[in-house]
Amino acid sequence: MARIRSVFWDDLEKDLQSDEEREAFARESAQIQTVDRIINALNDAIEESGISKAELARRLHTDPASLRRLLTSSQNPTIRTLVPVAAELGLEITVVRVKKRAAGTGGRRSSDRSRIAAEVLSTECQDSVVVSP
Predict the structure, then answer these.
(1) pLDDT tens digits for 88-131?
(2) Cα torsion through 126, 110, 32, 43, rounded to 10
(3) Could you tell me the residue ranges of all domains in the chain?
(4) Is residue 35 within 8 Å of residue 76, measured between CB atoms?
(5) Do β-strands 92-97 and 127-132 pair in parallel, antiparallel, or remain unpaired?
């Protein structure tokens, strides 16, 4: 298993040679993680509410299959699609600054595995979207 991880990081290091490639990869990763957090929070709220997805869809005047796809597929939902779902569950979606971007952090030069991992997985310079009651 350790070798698979090493091969992954070796390949990632080769793929992300330039600052622009690393920045793009970090941006895309942050977007995916943000959408996942929102969808997971909405699914948790549905479960906690005790109502079915079909009932929620009825309340939203939408097709149950559309709501199920929104909450389970790998599509990239819009805020306009998510806000009514959150509101019906008594939630709001807000954007909160996690950490301010420090001057000069755009041009990272390190190419070692741990540095790439830190860039990809950190929330440095990322805004957080919070789904809250």
Answers:
(1) 999 998 888 877 555 444 444 444 444 544 444 443 334 445 55
(2) -70
(3) 2-132
(4) yes
(5) antiparallel
Neighbouring-strand partners of residue 97: 127
| Distance in angstroms (rounded) separating the CA atoms of residues 35 and 78 | 10
Two tokens, residue 117: 């991992």
| Distance from the first to the final alpha carbon of the chain | 41
In whole angstroms, what separates CA 33 from the centre of its chain? 2
Question: Looking at the whole model, is its pTM more than 0.85?
Answer: no
Nearest CA to 97 out of 64, 59, 124 is that of 124
Q: Which of left, alpha, beta for 61 (phi over 0: left; psi -120 to 50: alpha)?
A: left
